Amino acid sequence: MLNHIYKFGLAVIVLLQVDVCVGQDSAIPSSIRASYTMESLSDGSQVSLNEVLYGVPPPPGKVIGDTYLTPNWLKSAIQLYKDDRVIQGYSVRYDIYADALNIKTDNGVKVLEGKRIKSFSWQDSTRVEPVFFVNARDYKFENTPLTGFFEVLVDGPAPLFKRTQVRVKKADYNVSFDVGSRDDKILKEGSYYVGQSKAVVELSNTKKKVLSIFGNRADEMEKFMSDSNLSLKNEADLVRLFKHYNTLIAQ
Asked: What is the pTM of this model?
């Protein structure tokens, strides 16, 4: 008991000394400075932060991200299945989750369902050439029609496609330990496919499986990969690889 009284008295003296020394010439509040001084005098029997905040609800979580392939509105040309009609000149955004194009018109934003669109393209300021998309429903993966759109990275007899999908990573905040995220996060994940007539094969990132796609050109393509130092995990390198392959088989 006397020990606690002694520590309390000593702490008061320290507080008074800090206030006198710091005065008006410090940007750090004296109470904050004092807390560090008192900490060294404490026997550890202090109230924890969790106890102080007990019963105070954490701030609500948010949804971070969006389901659009690109955040920008881009000038487009849209080819419909019906009569192969082409609509062009409108700014659009593609909603991956809804599988629909949002079209900006003079009368507001209109929504065009993906199942009505055969293909579309847009001009992205970050790209030199227009970006083209084809409806994935016109291709089968393991004998099953797909949904959404393929971005055409390389055109030719064996086109290279990219398909982007969205996934929601749910909040995993643990109140007891004050760890994790309170927010749901929308993640965009891309996978690559190679067209073989009206079917597609998903592209693996293992060299052996990729080389098997090239058939009797496998040795030639393996040498090209080695000479060019290409990585199957790099999209730009995949584009180089399949541009070269399509050049070979188109001859």
From this structure: 0.72
